[in-house]
Amino acid sequence: MNIYSRRVAIVGVTGYAGQELDRLLASHPQIQVVGRFASKADEESGAEPFSLEKLGSYAPDVVVLATEHELSMRLTPALLQAGYRIVDMSGAFRLKNAGLYREWYKFEHAAPELLAEAVYGLPESYSEQIHGARLVANPGCYATATILPLAPLYKANAIDSTCTVVVDGKSGVSGAGRQPKPETHFCEVNENISAYGILKHRHTPEMVSQLPGATFDRFVFTPHLIPINRGILNTIVLRPANRASVRSILSDTYATAPFVRVFPDGRMPNVQNVTRTNLCSIGIASSGPNTVIVSAIDNLVKGAAGQAIQNLNLMLGCEPAAGLLS
Amino acid sequence: MNIYSRRVAIVGVTGYAGQELDRLLASHPQIQVVGRFASKADEESGAEPFSLEKLGSYAPDVVVLATEHELSMRLTPALLQAGYRIVDMSGAFRLKNAGLYREWYKFEHAAPELLAEAVYGLPESYSEQIHGARLVANPGCYATATILPLAPLYKANAIDSTCTVVVDGKSGVSGAGRQPKPETHFCEVNENISAYGILKHRHTPEMVSQLPGATFDRFVFTPHLIPINRGILNTIVLRPANRASVRSILSDTYATAPFVRVFPDGRMPNVQNVTRTNLCSIGIASSGPNTVIVSAIDNLVKGAAGQAIQNLNLMLGCEPAAGLLS
Amino acid sequence: MNIYSRRVAIVGVTGYAGQELDRLLASHPQIQVVGRFASKADEESGAEPFSLEKLGSYAPDVVVLATEHELSMRLTPALLQAGYRIVDMSGAFRLKNAGLYREWYKFEHAAPELLAEAVYGLPESYSEQIHGARLVANPGCYATATILPLAPLYKANAIDSTCTVVVDGKSGVSGAGRQPKPETHFCEVNENISAYGILKHRHTPEMVSQLPGATFDRFVFTPHLIPINRGILNTIVLRPANRASVRSILSDTYATAPFVRVFPDGRMPNVQNVTRTNLCSIGIASSGPNTVIVSAIDNLVKGAAGQAIQNLNLMLGCEPAAGLLS
Amino acid sequence: MNIYSRRVAIVGVTGYAGQELDRLLASHPQIQVVGRFASKADEESGAEPFSLEKLGSYAPDVVVLATEHELSMRLTPALLQAGYRIVDMSGAFRLKNAGLYREWYKFEHAAPELLAEAVYGLPESYSEQIHGARLVANPGCYATATILPLAPLYKANAIDSTCTVVVDGKSGVSGAGRQPKPETHFCEVNENISAYGILKHRHTPEMVSQLPGATFDRFVFTPHLIPINRGILNTIVLRPANRASVRSILSDTYATAPFVRVFPDGRMPNVQNVTRTNLCSIGIASSGPNTVIVSAIDNLVKGAAGQAIQNLNLMLGCEPAAGLLS
Predict the structure, then answer these.
(1) pLDDT band at C1 (very low <50, low <70, confident <90, very high)
(2) Which pLDDT value is given to residue C76?
(3) What confidence tens digit (pLDDT) does each residue in D64-92 have?
(4) Is any Cβ of chain C less than 8 angstroms from the Cβ of D199?
């Protein structure tokens, strides 16, 4: 087998996530990007307009959708029918329940029959299912930085369920995409901090769905826009259940995970620790009954393109960390 | 009486807070800065080294200490003995209990006998006491942005006391002072976000002390350093007690306060809304049992120099908002 | 005469320059903003759509156009005909020669008959003409920071005319206006520096026109976009003519100018020196035959709204620095 | 020969340049970092204090000095005597004339006898000499971005020598090193632009020395500090000699150079184009007699660590671009 035998096409290659995926795959030892499609035709980018015919001519093993959820939802059924496997970077297939799309995304899902089949593409949790999946829903950036530290604790019943878990997220602006908007105009973001989507952000149901035992009543997520290009820092406050050891649960869970690092006592990650890496770094501090967890990722890597590569590696039989260690 | 009849001296005029105070007082209609002292002699700044003799020659009505808490603690007894009134911008006299200094500041207080007398300089809460005070402890920046929205709720028993109140603070770098340090070197702050002082920050006991009913077990404050010069945004998550109306309590409390604005439903403040003003803006959102409050101040104005001027106005009989409305 | 007797209307009050003008005039002791019009109707801003009827109802003494040059060029003839005096903040009337508009702005001027009458609104050069003008063309931001240091030198024949004068301008992003564009999207500006409009920028003919003896062959201006909100720094390299003293010419010219400061030998201005002031600060260094001049302004104040107020003060008989000294 | 057979030690590995070199060499296919020394002992960094004995125990093929010029000047003679080859990243051996050190660096050179032997480490100009050199002086960051576009033009007599060449440099803050200083404190750099070292910067003699025919009278370099972490943009204004084609000279010179890109007409590089790459991108625009060249590099890569790797590759017989293409 040729070392470049795995073939991937990217739809939406001109956005920040698609561009990062293309850039990272350029140094992947076993995966080749064979097609680059724009969401909208974009001459400067070297990307071509998408068509099924054109896609077919490239014979990709997997199609990565780096598109808005509306377009992902529209393209996916046809792509699956044509026999392609898909990694979708949008939110279109992350939730299992069409009602949650109605409530949090404010639309009627166009392909609800696929929600049950779609595999949530968090390799640390679902590596076996991803391996054989037709449709992988690449997790949201905030969700990744929340679920990685919290899922093992919920699974271990290590969180006092009478107390609310509070997640305060801060993100760089690339998370808002490449399209110019008044709220991402330089002068509006620079020298500013703002909260947005308060109690309404679409990553909230994604988090709650992936945290066994979590409920909307006992889980509050607040995202903030910060004047940096890349990076997410989540600050999570919770109350551990009696005698639970947050640190040992997380250390044990991720002892051999290539991309999750649990920091030793007294050290906390920041965004620069993880920029341009596929790492999720996690720090833990406790005092009295309270525990604070700080997690950091690069929203475009572990929060998007890097995680997509982890999923491609699993789907295509490459080494789990291939292309992600430079 | 001459319109410039009130005389103020500033010790520590070369730091960011002292400099801002000097700048703001330059357009105050009734207060004149008569002396400007450096903490350390600083030739470029036009500030002179402090001495009691030199201070005496300026005959100030009030001395403002824009100094580190060690120096404030050392100067204050002598200044009071010499008959001066003081606004201290450090943390040296904000707590009532010398034990809290031992626990949170890690020092033995040098003038514990003054802690009871010192008035906490939050004009929205203590205007009468400030009016006649000898020693006013100007509040901390994070504490101001926390106590203004939370104190009325605690006072009204409007918070479910079985649930932890979580305050996530984000501050610009001027809050860390002017002294160059590795952690405030441009390249370390820019394109970065970091949490610090987790579960150990000195403003925590200040907040808990000022919030009747709050306890360290049920109150978590986490500050973050953000790559902007000025501004604090606090994101506060709490669970209101049964039937309590957070919005109406805050709106009623601050209906006539010149510097606190409760935003209408659906609007949230950001840092640019308040930069270079003495305002604290407050937004409120609720969903199910949870409420999120976002408060914003300029850390150098309402969080330091502007609030000091509010205190000076009260102490010296000026209009409450004098010098703060341009 | 009532202290608020001068009445000004602003068209384009929702852009950065219009907004700054409105903000600054709020503390002007003698000028009142009586009408606020949006270029396009903008509900959030409190601005109303422009109409001549509505304008008439406010009876303004002067109309300030904080609009794009196309709109300024279209509105001006009708406003003059209706008897209003105008300060236009766009480039529409800064050049005397309609051919320059064709060459540098790429349009045919719609009101070339007004170009001769329009007074270039640089108060340091044209205060008498501004006093009685019907139409004042408020200078461009880069042009202001260039002409103030260079015009006295050209007038004194102090520049070696065989050598090219090189002006390297760096501007904050507010100079590009409020409209979101791909090139002002946060992620494209942040952590970036770019040159633009190289050898084609529209402020070039404005500079050359105002510098007696300058020619396009011997004058090169290159603007750059820098990741800050406000401020312009111009770095100017020239060769003085024999025995000319750049420093004494500039010091003498601006000895009594309220808003131009010539720094002493060894000190150079930076952007923070002038932010939120109407100052233009100028530093000078020489070595061998070469001289470097650095000038700094706030592009929204001395480069736009503050300078417009200087012009309004002259037109309306207020003190030259009224409303600009806080 | 083992693929890791080349052994390099880094002195000064805790500074920004040393750190970047260590990071980049981690993925070099043929070079191994065998020793990491701090300038000053720095426990956190994992670097050890330098000693000749300790260095000897690692048996490096080349020692890279990522140290200040004082330390480089002091260590170099002893290292050469002990038989090591050196790449020095400081300015200590970049100039051929000890008098220039007296004039521009203000010190008496401690090893003037080595200046003649030292090879200026610009691989695009001196690859053969670098191949066999004992001592390579890695160029300055501004100098690299200046000499690459200008040296071919000077060599071809393509510049009108009666006209001054003006280089306006803008650099990110990592160029100022890791040591906290008042002028690199976050609040002093952020929302600011400043010129520094005007007509006195130490890279000026380095540039003039490397540009045949350039003179201090006809060459002006002005550096600026810009609020970004990484990157240099140089804007160069010159007057080409009669009929000289700047574009064709540069295109021809760098047709096969792996790290220099001459942009097509109409396109200009910016800093983001080159960040975290070893590229120098060059754009050219002309109008009438004037030409503007814009060059961009990452100051820590092509301006420091990446260029050092190019030099190591030449000295150690690796492929010219090894370790620099990821």
Answers:
(1) very low
(2) 98
(3) 999 999 999 999 999 999 999 999 999 99
(4) yes
- Cβ separation of C27 and B326 shorter than 8 Å? yes
**D44–chain B Cβ distance below 8 A for any pair:** no
pTM of the model: 0.96
Residue D1 has pLDDT above 50, yes or no: no
Contact B235, B292 (CB under 8 A): yes
Would you state the pLDDT for residue B148? 98
Q: Where are the alpha helices (DSSP H) in D275-321?
A: 306-316
Q: Is A38 helix (H, G, I), strand (E, B) or coil?
A: strand
Give the containing element (helix H, strand E) for A312.
helix A306-316
- Angle at which helix B306-316 crosses helix B16-25, to 10 degrees, equals 50
C-beta separation of C304 from C276 below 8 A: no
Residues of D in contact with C286 (CB under 8 A): 199
Q: How many residues does chain A have?
A: 326
Q: Classify burial at B281, counting beta carbons within 10 Å of its beta carbon; exposed 0-12, middle 13-18, buried 19 or more.
A: buried
Q: Does B43 contact chain D (CB < 8 Å)?
A: no
**Distance between CA atoms of B194 and A34, rounded to whole angstroms?**
39
Helices (H), D156-267: 186-189, 203-210, 246-253
Q: Does D191 touch chain A (CB under 8 A)?
A: yes
Q: Would you list the domain boundaries of chain C?
A: 6-139+303-316, 141-299
> Which amino acid is present at A262?
V
* Continuous H helices in chain D: 16-25, 52-58, 69-81, 98-100, 123-132, 141-155, 186-189, 203-210, 246-253, 271-274, 306-316
Assembly ipTM: 0.96
Q: Looking at chain B, which subunits does it touch, using at least 3 CB pairs closer than 8 Å as the criterion? A: A, C, D
Strand order from edge to edge, sheet including A280-287: A194-195, A219-225, A165-171, A232-238, A290-297, A280-287, A260-262
pLDDT of B151 strictly over 80:
yes
DSSP string, A221-241: EEEEE-SSSS-EEEEEEE-BP
Report the phi/psi class of residue A229: left, alpha or beta, with left for phi > 0 and alpha for psi in -120 to 50.
alpha
Strands (E), C4-155: 6-11, 31-38, 48-49, 62-65, 85-88, 119-120, 135-137
Q: Exposed (0-12), middle (13-18) or buried (19+): which is C96, by Cβ within 10 Å?
A: middle
Confidence of residue C154 (pLDDT cuts 50, 70, 90): very high
A192 with B228: Cβ contact below 8 A: yes
Residues of A with active-site annotation: 141
3 state DSSP class of B17 = helix
Contact assignment for C173 to A191 by CB distance below 8 Å: no
For chain B, give the percent of residues with pLDDT over 70. Answer: 96
A to B CB pairs, distance under 8 Å: 145
Point out the least confidently predicted range of B304-308, C38-42, C177-181, C202-206.
C38-42
Contact residues for A148 (Cβ-Cβ < 8 A; gap 6+) = A122, A124, A254, A260, A280, A282, A295
Q: How far apart (Å, rounded) are the C-alpha atoms in residues B121 and A215? A: 41
Is the CB of C191 less than 8 angstroms away from the CB of D271?
yes
Q: Tell me the β-bridge partners of C68.
A: none
The dihedrals phi and psi of B31, each to the nearest 5 degrees, come to -115, 135
Beta bridge partners of D35: D9
**H or E element in which residue D326 lies:** none
Using one digit for the tens of pLDDT, what is the confidence trace for A263-310?
999 999 999 999 999 999 999 999 999 999 999 999 999 999 999 999
B27/C326 Cβ within 8 A: yes
pLDDT exceeds 70 at position D294: yes
As its CATH architecture, domain B6-139+303-316 has 3-Layer(aba) Sandwich (3.40)
Distance CA A185, CA B251 (A): 32
- What is the third-level CATH fold of A141-299? Dihydrodipicolinate Reductase; domain 2 (3.30.360)
